[in-house]
Structure formats: structure tokens, C-alpha cells
Amino acid sequence: MFTVFRILLILIHFSCDLFAAIYNCYMILRRKCFELWHGENLRTEIEIMLRTANKVKKLPRHIVVVFGAKEDTIFDCVRIIGWCITLGIPYISFFDISGFLVRNESLLKYELAKRRPDLMEHINWGKPNAGFMRNGTCASKSKTRISLLSSLDGKNEIVSLTKTLAEAVVTGSIKLEEIDIDLLDEKLNSRGIPDPDLGLIYGHVRSTYGVLPWQTRVTEFFTLPSYDSLTAEEFTCLLEKYSKCQQRFGK
Questions:
Q1: Are 197 and 61 in contact, with CB atoms under 8 Å apart?
Q2: pLDDT at res. 36
Q3: Of 123, 111, 119, 44, which Cα lies nearest the Cα of 73?
Q4: Which of 221, 191, 198 is nearest to 60 (CA)?
């Protein structure tokens, strides 16, 4: 009996892998046909975004893009930033577990200024400042807030906060009964931005790689169809899929 179940499990895994391979081949072929038919240019991408904005019922206010262990993501970030600004999405976060983007923030800004200089005046970078209010709204509504995240902003942030609170209790700086959900929300949401509505994960592994576990409790996560660069059409398909989701917030 054990042998029969083992053979069935192997067949199921093989079928899933075969289906994934066929689907990926289909997506690659579809992408090539789209590129041949429409071409790859900025005007086409803007037209696709504008059609999507008029078609979908809702758009996310905050998108987090999870690159996982993938590096060399500068070009992907530039394109996604351009699409989100065109759609009027006010918050974008990019996460990679290796910290590649955090280390290469200046390179990202350079490539963005070189490829899309028209976007620079519509972007805010870095830590929260006087332009951002505690309720997650931005004083400059015409600008998009871009955050670059690494593993230090994920589980490590919760571990660090736990140690800090434990030390505060020991020293008497805070009472144990004062530690509640509201306090944790205040400490972990110190960036002054709303929690992500939509998460996009690069790669075939269905893992969030530890991105902001506290802030992504009700985030809708989608796995990208391939590990290659995302196309404008694929991005809008994911937005349409998100628009149709009914967020029940655990109800």
C-alpha cells in the first residue's frame, strides 16, 4: 500500500511540473507574439496602463514587489515605477532578501533618471519626513512614495522590536500590560505608509521570503508567471485579477 501511495505522489508531482512547464511555454510564446504585434515602446505601455485604469474597478494604493533572491532587478524596478505612476498608485515597495536594491539605491536612481527623467519630479524616496503624516497619507498627493526593503525590514524587524520591548520591561521603561496590538502597530508601521494591498512575487517558489510579515496580513499575493522581466500586459492582467478579488479581511 505504501508503494502505491508513493507512486501516486510521484505521478502527481510529475503532472504538476508538466503543467507548470507547459504554462510557462505558453506564457513565453504569448509574450513573444505580443512583442511582435505591438512592439516594445513607452507609448504602447502608457496606452496599456491608461486602458487598464479605465477598465478596473479598483487599484491598489500600495504594491510590494518581492524579488526574493533575484538580483539585477534595476530595469524591472524602473519599468514598474513608470507603470505605477501612470496609474496613480501612490506607494511602491521593492523587497529582495539579499539587500541588492538597498545597496544599489544610487544606481536605481541613476537609471531611472536616465531612462525616465519625466518621472523624477513625481517620486519621493527614503524615510518618512514632514511631508508624510502618521495616518499613511502623503502631504504631496501628486508624488509616489518608493521604499527599498531587505531582510532587515522583515522578520528581523520583529525580532529587533521584541528584544527592545523586553529590555524596556526589564529596565522599567514600559510596563508589561502596556504592550498590546496598538503599540505593536505603531512601532512596526513607523514608516507612515499604509499596508500593502497587492504583493507580486517573482519566481516559481510560492514564498514571501519574509517580507513585512506584520504589515502583509491581508495582502493579496500573486506569483508572477515567469522569472523573466515582467511585461506591461502581464502587469495589467495581475491588476485586473486583483480588482476582482473580494478582500474579506479574515471574516
A1: yes
A2: 53
A3: 111
A4: 198
Q: Are 129 and 143 in contact (CB under 8 A)?
A: no
Maximum separation of any 2 CA atoms in the chain, in Å: 68
Residue with cell 505601455: 45
CB 136 within 8 A of CB 192: yes
AA identity, residue 243: S
Please check the confidence at residue 28 and state whether its pLDDT lies above 50. Answer: yes
Query: Would you say 231 and 31 are in contact if contact means Cβ atoms under 8 Å apart?
Result: yes
| Helices 74-87 & 42-55 angle (0-180, nearest 10) | 50
Mean pLDDT, the chain, whole residue set: 79
Pick from 120-129, 144-153, 186-195, 238-247: least confident? 186-195
- Residue 210 contacts residue 95 (beta carbons within 8 Å): no
Alpha-carbon 24 to chain mean position: 21
| Position with higher pLDDT, 163 vs 138 | 163
- Structure-block grid coordinates of residue 180: 498590546
Question: Can you give the pTM of this predicted structure?
Answer: 0.73
In this prediction, residue 161 carries a pLDDT of 78
Percent of the chain as helix, strand, coil, to the nearest 5: 50, 15, 35
Q: Which residues pair with 95 in a beta bridge?
A: 66, 149
